[in-house]
Design a protein that fits this description.
Layout lengths: L1 E3 L9 E10 L2 E9 L11 E7 L4 E9 L10 E10 L2 E9 L2 H4 L5 E8 L6 E2 L12 E14 L4 E10 L8 E8 L6 E7 L8 E8 L2 E8 L5 E7 L19 E9 L2 E11 L8 E14 L5 E4 L2 H10 L9 E17 L3 E10 L5 E8 L6 E7 L4 E7 L18 E4 L8 E8 L2 E6 L3 E6 L7 E20 L5
Antiparallel strand pairs: 1-5, 2-3, 3-4, 4-5, 6-7, 7-8, 8-9, 10-11, 11-12, 12-13, 14-15, 15-16, 17-18, 18-19, 19-20, 21-30, 22-27, 22-30, 23-24, 23-30, 24-25, 25-26, 27-28, 28-29
Length: 477
């Protein structure tokens, strides 16, 4: 059965780490299917399987790789990768059993399964890649990413590990094993040990032209999916101009390439109790970005054309909205209500910002008196876009700050005055996805504020807003 979804989530469960694989024109999206068992201290996940050709219409194939039994190493099956060789597909995955830790045994190992059709998988119970306890800690040994390195004439496996020595929060590395035949693996030096992170999760390697991109996710020293780049697969891995690929709510992203196009797939985290002040949780809904490379070798993100076309074709009739608004205010905040805002909508708007303007942007789900709203705020002087809300705890006098303060999300933004700047907004329920300048992505959750309007604003300056598209997204159930 095919389902049309902008932010895919399985029924009665949540979508965790994505393991994408492109084959014969079809994007196969495996993911960790998490029922959020309240009695388990860790996610009890199977691998589930979707297919799509447009990142909007998905066919659900159910469980592809089930978790094991209580005494087995893969009581939960975690992230990995798929590679094809001589007509056989090899799936490498993480086997996790948290009960083994209490008995002094390793809790994570790398395991394998195979298939001839990408649907039915057979586990190879004789294969296990155990942690190297001489050089690495015993509890972090996961997320294998396997690929063919043509220059070395070897298969390489990149995976998460932690060195046994060094500052506790800086031992994370992307370890490496090599093989000539996908059967016998031997450990080699890590591909990257930055002495910077606790862990570098879900490693992924992408080549575009002369650049190699090492993509990973971290939960310390900045939470999110990041990348480093190099002219050589051996490194050194250097920082790009801006190394995050989305904001705080987007995690565990991996790439998939179809022809000469490249996409980044990850999950948009839910928040505890489904409130704006709740702690970020593991897993949520699928988000798909298209990756493009600029002339300097930086990676940038944009709305995939397939999704934009689907938004237009799936939309209801356009609403009556002013096509152009100019706001000017030398020293105060001014705004204009554009129209009502449905639960699901697509907005594309061009903005011409006058030099010297303090900030401007969009208000979403605003009430009539502006007592509550979400804000997409462009700050030219600080060269950033900020997602914010009003009211928020901590901004009032003597208000306690006992909730998670990480509501505000920002992304760097390079603006050139005198050139129109495009802002694209995809809103569906509590999922919000923003593309600024068609190059910078920001995805997040919005739960609490329920106003029914959207508008534009300027503070300390002037801007002209030219509406390209405003459409209510039709029911897709």
């Amino acid at each position: 059965m095919k389902t049309v979804k902008l932010f895919y989530k399985p029924e009665d469960a949540w979508l965790g780490d994505v393991i994408p694989f492109f084959w014969e024109g079809v994007y196969h999206i495996y993911y960790l299917h998490d029922p959020r068992n309240p009695d388990s201290p860790v996610p009890d996940t199977d691998w589930a399987h979707l297919t799509t050709q447009d990142f909007v219409t998905y066919e659900n194939h159910g469980v592809a790789l089930p978790r094991g039994e209580m005494g087995q190493r893969d009581l939960a099956v975690y992230t990995g990768s798929i590679i094809e060789k001589d007509g056989l597909f090899h799936l490498y995955y993480t086997g996790h059993n948290h009960h083994r830790h209490s008995s002094g045994a390793v809790s994570q190992v790398i395991m394998r399964a195979s298939s001839t059709d990408l649907h039915s998988w057979t586990k190879d119970l004789d294969f296990v890649l155990l942690p190297d306890l001489e050089h690495y800690e015993m509890d972090d040994w996961r997320d294998p990413f396997v690929f063919w390195n043509a220059a070395a004439e070897q298969y390489w496996m990149l995976f998460v590990a932690r060195h046994k020595t060094g500052a506790t929060n800086r031992r994370g590395c992307i370890a490496r094993a090599v093989s000539e035949d996908l059967c016998e693996w031997r450990l080699a030096e890590p591909i990257w040990s930055p002495n910077q992170y606790f862990n570098l999760e879900c490693p992924d390697l992408l080549r575009i032209g002369d650049w190699w991109y090492l993509i990973y996710s971290t939960f310390n020293n900045g939470y999110g999916t990041r990348y480093r780049r190099s002219r050589s697969i051996e490194g050194p891995w250097t920082t790009a101009d801006h190394d995050f690929l989305d904001g705080r709510g987007f995690y565990a992203a991996k790439t998939i390439s179809g022809g000469d196009r490249h996409f980044l797939l990850g999950w948009l985290a839910t928040r505890e109790r489904e409130t704006d002040s709740g702690r970020w949780e593991w897993g949520g809904n699928l988000v798909a970005h298209e990756l493009v490379q600029d002339t300097a070798g930086n990676l940038q993100t944009r709305l995939p054309g397939e999704i934009k076309n689907a938004l237009n074709s799936q939309s209801a009739a356009k609403r009556d909205v002013m096509p152009e608004v100019t706001l000017e205010s030398a020293d105060q905040f001014t705004w204009r209500n554009m129209s009502n805002l449905p639960c699901a909508a697509f907005i594309e708007i061009n903005i011409d910002i006058t030099p010297g303007t303090q900030d401007c942007g969009l208000l979403l789900r605003a009430d009539a008196d502006l007592e509550a709203y979400y804000q997409l705020r462009i700050e030219p002087r600080r060269r950033r876009i900020v997602f914010d809300r009003w009211p928020k705890e901590g901004d009032g006098p003597f208000w306690p700050r006992d909730n998670d303060p990480s509501f505000v999300i920002e992304r760097p933004l390079n603006l050139t005055f005198g050139e129109e700047f495009t802002l694209q907004v995809v809103l569906d329920g509590d999922c919000l996805l923003v593309y600024a300048g068609e190059l910078v992505a920001l995805s997040t959750r919005i739960y609490d504020i329920k106003g029914d309007s959207w508008g534009v604003f300027v503070s300390g300056g002037a801007a002209t807003f030219r509406l390209v598209t405003f459409e209510e997204i039709a029911d897709r159930s």
